[in-house]
UniProtKB/TrEMBL annotation:
This is DNA-binding MurR/RpiR family transcriptional regulator. Residues 19-95 form the HTH rpiR-type domain. Keywords: DNA-binding, Transcription, Transcription regulation. PROSITE patterns: HTH_RPIR (PS51071), SIS (PS51464). GO terms for molecular function: carbohydrate derivative binding; DNA binding; DNA-binding transcription factor activity. Residues 1-20 are annotated as: Disordered. Pfam families: HTH_6, SIS. It comes from Conexibacter arvalis. Residues 140-281 form the SIS domain. GO terms for biological process: carbohydrate derivative metabolic process.
Length: 302
């Protein structure tokens, strides 16, 4: 056999930096029409255009009709172009350096940073109503509630989402802990997870390798993995048993945690409902300890 022979790529997309691996893998799983293949090849070579242009704009550039672009998205498992683009754009932004993202988000004249930030978060929250279903939140909450123990893994600014989840779960009496140190500490903390345990892995944008590795190892040992991430194209989405998909794009170089925190609040409310009287009694005990320790300024009752 010749040394330069190789197995053809089932995706049909060109090799190289212009063809994202995550798109190649997704396309390889389906059978596209010839015109659908044109859409795939264009997106592979022009990911920025795919992340910002409408279905009609894309269709005109490729030389197909709008229905072809919509069917392409539906063939890949999405309801239509807007849902596909939401996930595609988040994964594309994750391939950029923060300085590149910053340049793409420069505000035009007349737009304040306050307005841009709030408008973007409003869009993210609206999109989250579609990207996360109540049934998925219920499933994730049930997994955490039934687990013998749960470890929440996150790092950097994303740890803020994990902090809220772990802290308020503990206030309800649930055996939930947080690991934010990363690297060898994450590996060591998650090494003992097994069947009956739960790992909540939180990572957005440029996915953290140690978080993904911890999730993969935990699942291989039988633990259940819940992911909170921002795209079906993310490594975590491929690993997790349950995935909460939340938009995180901001108006600057960082990711916005507004929508993820809102989804975590829904998850916590679901956990409180599952806990019933036991959760309420635990919260009351915690409040009494807070009072005994005199942790807060007293209420002004006059």
């Amino acid at each position: 056999m010749s040394n330069d022979s190789h197995t053809p790529d089932p995706s049909g997309l060109p090799d190289g930096a212009g063809s994202p691996e995550w798109l190649r893998e997704r396309v390889a799983e389906v059978k596209l029409t010839p015109k659908g293949e044109l859409v795939a090849r264009f997106l592979a070579a022009n990911p920025r255009a795919g992340s910002v242009e409408s279905a009609s704009e894309l269709a005109e550039r490729i030389g197909v009709n709008v229905a072809t672009v919509v069917r392409f998205a539906q063939t890949l498992g999405f309801s239509g172009w807007p849902e596909f683009q939401l996930h595609f754009r988040h994964r594309y932004l994750g391939s950029l350096l923060p300085t590149d993202v910053l340049r793409s988000h420069r505000q035009g004249e007349g737009t304040s940073h306050l307005e841009a930030a709030i408008r973007r978060d409003t869009e993210n929250l609206q999109a989250a109503l579609t990207s996360v279903s109540p049934e998925t939140v219920e499933q994730a909450a049930r997994t955490i509630y039934d687990a013998r123990r749960t470890v929440v893994v996150a790092s950097g600014s994303f740890a803020a989402v994990g902090q809220v989840l772990a802290h308020l779960s503990a206030v309800m009496g649930l055996p939930v802990t947080l690991e934010t140190r990363g690297g060898v500490s994450t590996v060591a903390t998650c090494a003992a997870l097994e069947a009956g345990d739960c790992l909540v892995a939180i990572s957005f944008w440029r996915q953290m390798r140690d978080v993904s590795r911890a999730a993969r190892d935990a699942r291989e040992r039988g633990a259940t993995v819940v992911a909170i991430t921002d795209s079906v194209f993310s490594p975590l989405a491929e690993i997790a048993d349950t995935t909460l998909m939340v938009p995180t794009e901001s108006a600057s170089f960082f990711q916005s945690l507004t929508a993820p925190l809102s989804v975590v609040y829904a998850l916590l409310a679901q956990l409180e409902e599952l806990g019933g009287d036991e959760a309420e009694n635990t919260i009351a005990r915690v409040q009494r300890v807070w009072a005994d320790l005199d942790l807060f300024h007293p209420y002004d009752t006059t």
